[in-house]
Amino acid sequence: MKSIVFCFTFLFLAQGCTRLIIMKEGIKQPALEDYNSLSNFLLKIEVDTSELLCFKDTIALNKFFKMNIGMPESRFFNSEKKLVDYRESPKDCNGQVSVFLEKAEMVNQKTPVSDEFLEKYLKDLVYVKDQQPFAIGQEKNDLYLVMYWAKYLGKINKRKVFEWLNLVEDARKRGLKIRVLKINADYQQFWGLKKNDLPQFVY
Question: How many CB atoms lie within 10 A of CB 178?
Fold first, then answer.
C-alpha cells in the first residue's frame, strides 16, 4: 500500500510545485487527518465545514491523482451536470478559476466537454465525519463547482479556496444558484493507514 500511495502523490507534487513555492506556501509532509483536524483547519480560514467530503480509500485517491487535476483546483459543471472547461488554453493554471467565477453566468453558454459528467467526479466520495457515501441529490442548480484541496498544501489553500468561495457568494448575490462541493485529498485516519505508510517528500 505504501508504494502505491507514494507513487502517484509524488508525481502530483513534482509536476505542480517548485522548491521556492513549497517553501513560501508552507507546504508540509502529509499527515493522517480526521474530521476534527480538517474542520478546525477550515474554520481558521473561515470556510464552512457543513459538507466536508473526501475519498473513501487510497485506491480512490490514486484514481484522482491519475486524472492529473492538481490541487487546489476546481471543476465547473453546467446546469445539466456537464463539465465546462474554465481555461482559455490547456496551459492555463488555476489562476483562471477566479476569472471564470467573475463571469460564472456564462457557464451554460459554453460548449461542454464531451462525455464528461459530474457523476464521474463524485464516485468514491464519502463524508469525512461519518464515512457515509455521498449523494448529490435531485435539486437543480445553475452551476456545480467541485473544489479539490489538501491540508498539507499550507497557505495556498487559504488564498485560493477562500478567494473562490468569496466569488461564489458574489455570483449568488447576482442570482446564480451554485452548488459547491469541497473535496479533501488528504490521507484519512479511517483508511487504516499508519504513519510509515505516508509519503515523505524531498523538498
Answer: 18
Joined grid coordinates for residue 138: 435531485
Amino acid at 160: K
Other beta carbons within 10 Å of 71:
23
Rounded CA-CA distance 144/178 in Å is: 6
Question: What pLDDT, in 10s, does the model give residues 151-196?
Answer: 998 887 778 888 899 999 999 999 999 999 999 999 999 999 999 9
Task: Please state the three-class secondary structure of 67-83 as a single string.
Answer: CCCCCCEEEEECCCCEE
> How sure is the predictor about 20, in pLDDT bands with cuts at 50, 70 and 90?
low
- The string of pLDDT tens digits covering residues 66-92 is 998 888 899 999 999 999 988 776 666
Please, what is the Cα angle at 139 between 137 and 145, to 5 degrees?
85
The SS3 of residue 54 is: strand
Could you give the dihedral angle defined by the CA atoms of residues 192, 194, 196 and 198, in that order, rounded to the nearest 10 degrees? Answer: 50
Domain boundaries, the chain: 2-197
Q: What percent of the chain has pLDDT over 70?
A: 82
Enter the C-alpha cell of residue 185: 485529498
List the 143-149 sheet strands across, edge first.
Answer: 83-84, 73-77, 143-149, 178-184, 52-55, 125-127
